[in-house]
Specification:
By secondary structure, the chain is α+β, with helices and mostly antiparallel strands. The chain contains 15 helices and five strands.
């Protein structure tokens, strides 16, 4: 007798959960569903997920294009919130694997961050300069799409004092993934209005275009187009081997490009490259914003 999909799902659900945890999950899930369209929904959703696996922190960001991410929910203590939210929104999000994945037509689902990160992400300057400050051991995220070309990422985090999520725990989370994304989609189906309240100015489109092209255009006044491509990939955390594969050039050529880039920019390390990029992006973004505000004041 062939097992029906629904029966298979029920069997997997029971097999994945400890016997005592399944009733608690059902009760917490019901509470979350009752909280849809209310301010209590995020808290109830995270409470429900805590019945599935243990985690230290959670944050829910919404991404749209190159816009500054919206913090829909977080449970960080004040000192940690500065690193995870305030500083993140100020610029480091541009190098976050979840941000880059959200800008692609990635399939909704559950992902470990390391599944989305470039091969040398954990040796990148972004990781060393920013991510290590978070003190995280691992981050996983439910990624879902809502109207308005928006991606919502529900992140569960474990600090270095905890173990990484085991395969057994990931299996349990994958079992609940469809229903988690379904109720989250219903709750945030009108999220596009969240951006409507943000201040618009005539230079907004130019700002988004600038950020969108930042990796390709950084240093282009003195770098060749190919060198600009290499810089963008280095900043994201790609190794020379990965750059070689993606750009279809020899590894030795990549090394020559990197040497020429450092010479032209007057630097000698990846940390200096990262600092230059952030400073350049910040400067140009301020000019664009001020230009837009100036147009508003004279109109």
């Amino acid at each position: 007798m062939v097992e029906k999909p629904r029966q298979a799902g029920v069997r997997l659900l029971k097999a994945s959960f400890p016997s005592a945890a399944l009733p608690r999950w059902h009760c917490a899930l019901a509470a979350a569903m009752d909280g849809i369209d209310s301010t209590e929904f995020p808290d109830r959703l995270i409470a429900a997920l805590s019945e599935v696996v243990a985690f230290d922190y959670s944050v829910i960001f919404a991404y749209r294009g190159t816009d500054r991410p919206l913090d829909l929910y977080d449970n960080f203590p004040p000192d940690q919130r500065e690193v995870f939210v305030t500083i993140y929104q100020a610029g480091p999000y541009l190098l976050d694997p979840f941000f880059h994945a959200s800008r692609k037509t990635m399939r909704p689902g559950l992902y470990r961050m390391r599944e989305l990160a470039p091969d040398r992400f954990y040796q990148s300057e972004y990781f060393r300069s920013y991510y290590v400050r978070t003190g995280l051991k691992e981050e996983i995220g439910f990624v879902l799409a809502v109207p308005g070309n928006i991606r919502v990422v529900i992140s569960l985090m474990r600090t270095k004092t905890s173990a990484a999520f085991s395969e057994k725990e990931m299996t349990r989370l994958r079992v609940v993934d469809p229903v988690v994304r379904s109720i989250a989609r219903r709750h945030w189906q009108s999220l596009e209005r969240g951006w409507a309240g943000q201040r618009w100015y005539p230079g907004m489109a130019a700002l988004e275009t600038h950020v969108d092209n930042a990796f390709q255009n950084f240093g282009r006044s003195i770098l060749t187009p190919r060198e600009c491509e290499v810089v963008g990939m280095v900043l994201r955390g790609h190794s020379s081997e990965s750059i070689s594969r993606q750009l279809k050039i020899a590894p030795g050529t990549v090394k020559i490009h990197r040497k020429n880039i450092y010479t032209k920019l007057g630097i000698s390390s990846q940390s200096e490259l990262f600092s230059l990029f952030i400073a350049s992006l910040y400067s140009e973004t301020r000019k664009t914003v001020q230009s837009g505000v100036s147009v508003m004041s004279t109109s």
